[in-house]
Amino acid sequence: MTTLDAAQKGIETFLRQKWRTAVTVTALRPASAGARRLNLLFDAQCAGERLELAATIAANPALQTMPIGVEASNLRFAERARVPAPKLHAVCEDPRFVGGPFFVTGRVEGDTIPRHVLRRVAQRRGLGERMAEQCGAALARLHAAETSDAHPQLKKPAAPIAETLRETRAQIASLLQPSPTFTLAQRWLETARPPEPQRRVVVHGDFRNGNLIVGDDGLRAILDWEVTHLGDPMEDCGWLCQRIWRFRNDALEAGGFGTRDALQRGYREAGGVFDGARFHWWKVMGTLKWGLGLAAQARAHLDGSAPGIVMAASGRRVAEQEYDLLMLLKPEGC
Amino acid sequence: MQDRPDAGELLKAIAQVLEEQMRETTPAPPGLKHSLRVAANLAQMLAREARLGAELDARERQRLAALLGVASAERSALELSAELSRRLDADPALARRAWPVLLEIVRGKLEVAKPGYDDFDFSEELRR
């Protein structure tokens, strides 16, 4: 991992070259958000001005799902679509400055850690519902944006529903241990599959509590645009409403902070079409995908490709997703 | 028979050491506190497994064998759940009969892995 001193020098050198002026980087510190990338916060003194900035560094390219330049272009896309996201200042594809490619954005103040977000919501009456509406509105604007403006390298499956079902089926077949519950869910998803979406839209792909910057005025920015792709708009809504992102505040479907009604209201008022059946399908699909992801983490620990106690522990969290799936698919009369 | 403390009691003692370390190691390097917390949770989980595991496994085999109409003595839980997965894939109509059995098995796993997780049942959001 890059040391902070080295990162400070690297960012400073890069910004000087990029902006062709003297830049001093101060107050550099790691941010808590982001599990796989390094997020640093800093100030840049430049031409008598102090800029409050953040750097997102792909320190381990093996874990990066898309080139950093593509992710950075998603931030610009969001800005054009009037979706709150950090403002992009610079992209550096050269890994030599800080040990990996990175981009620099404006810093947005607020909470990102889910339990801090939920604490803030608990302290301020009405904030959670407002946030759910803001999330709905942000997603509706993202989904309405013209896809021809999106980066050409974004994944764009011709049939997102069929493709997702193929992926989960293959993952179920390669589990270390069979999960009859996952098979049951897969068969339900295949049987209950909605028609392919009429229009493929830009989907954030990981829209959830934990990737949102939240202040007293609610949603300030959406982070982590590295799995953004073209697909079904209800995928984002279903993903946000999985139980895993409620962080024990289970009764509030939207990220543990708001109701589905508020999310739906925000989505519709911003011009989106909220399809309840499709939403439910994607919520079930998201729950299955997360369960398969946990099983894959346990396998990565066991086969030595990514060993570690957190990865190992994931194996014993599979049952949580199985339980959620069974409850979501409870047969009439059971 | 091993002398006391038994496996569960020892795992609890290990969990206590890890929890103390977690509290006392401040400031901790990034990630260390989280790893210690996970390790402590796993030790607590294994203590529950030492107490409940054998009975839960036996019950799982019985329930699966009864559902599949085979003798439970002949096959492991792994083989039985592979068989159930195959049958569910071939015949989704089996889901209705399998559902209560799977729920009981999953609840058993949660009793070890995350007690209380099954208190929430989604009934509110499914009603709408």
Residue-averaged pLDDT of chain B:
91
Low-pLDDT windows of residues of chain A: none
Hey, roughly how much beta strand do the residues of chain B contain? under 5%
Number of helices of chain B: 5
Look at the helices and sheets of chain B and give the structural class.
mainly alpha
Q: How much helicity do the residues of chain B have?
A: over 70%
Oligomer: heterodimer
State the total count of DSSP E strands of chain B.
0
- Listing every helix as H and every strand as E from the N terminus to the C terminus, the arrangement of chain B reads HHHHH
CATH class descriptor name of the largest domain in chain A: Alpha Beta
Task: Provide an overview of this structure.
With 334 residues, chain A is of the alpha+beta class. Chain A folds into 2 domains: 4-106, Phosphorylase Kinase, domain 1 (2-Layer Sandwich); 114-328, Aminoglycoside 3'-phosphotransferase, Chain: A, domain 2, CATH 3.90.1200. Helices cover 43% and strands 15% of the residues of chain A. Chain B has one domain. Chain B is built from 5 helices and no strands. Chain B is an all-alpha fold and 128 residues long.
Write the layout of secondary structure elements.
The complex is a heterodimer of chains A (334) and B (128).
Chain A: H1 4-19, E1 23-30, E2 38-46, E3 49-57, H2 68-80, E4 88-92, E5 102-106, H3 114-123, H4 127-144, H5 160-173, H6 180-191, E6 201-203, E7 212-215, E8 218-222, E9 229-231, H7 234-240, H8 260-269, H9 276-302, H10 309-314, H11 318-328
Antiparallel strand pairs in A: 1-2, 2-3, 3-5, 4-5, 6-9, 7-8
Chain B: H1 7-24, H2 32-68, H3 77-90, H4 95-113, H5 123-127
Helix pairs in contact in B: 1-2, 2-3, 2-4
